[in-house]
Design goal:
With 136 residues, this protein is mainly alpha-helical. The protein has one domain. It is 71% helix and 7% strand. It has a two-stranded antiparallel ribbon with strand order 1-2. Helix 1 runs antiparallel to helix 2. It holds the Pfam family YccF. It comes from Antribacter soli.
């Protein structure tokens, strides 16, 4: 099911979002000081292209540096990428079949605004304690 959702996602929203994140990453590579933001943009581009089956978790060691970086990120690229998510979510919500994809698109907005201090991991590794079953 994840593969089918990802294929539909790529066709209707993922490719456009991937392109937006890649363009932001390339532009952020121009000034050398913003290369860490470009790396974050490329990391999210990969996630925005094929999101189902993966999830975003907070890094436990993220501190004040990621907060300051996120503020700079919002000014440089975050607002534009969040608007891209909204623009691609609207047509998904208009079609009945695309409503789950539109919801997934809206869930990506916090990551597009605050990417630093987050990790993208496979869904089955995000919460392993819940998947072990009852304690023996």
């Amino acid at each position: 099911m994840k593969t089918l959702l990802n294929i539909i996602w790529v066709l209707f929203a993922g490719l456009a979002l991937w392109f937006g994140y890649v363009i932001a990453g390339v532009l952020l590579c121009i000034p050398i000081i913003t290369i860490p933001f470009a790396i974050a943009s490329f990391r999210i581009a990969n996630y925005a292209l094929w999101p189902f089956g993966r999830t975003v978790v907070d890094k436990p060691d993220a501190g004040a540096g990621s907060f300051v970086g996120n503020v700079i990120w919002i000014v440089l690229a975050g607002w534009w990428l969040a608007i891209g998510h909204i623009v691609t979510a609207i047509p998904l919500f208009v079609s009945i079949i695309g409503i789950p994809l539109g919801i997934a698109n809206i869930k990506l907005i916090p990551l597009s605004l605050l990417p630093l201090g987050k990790s993208i991991v496979p869904s089955d590794l995000a919460f392993p304690a819940y998947q072990r079953g009852p304690a023996a």
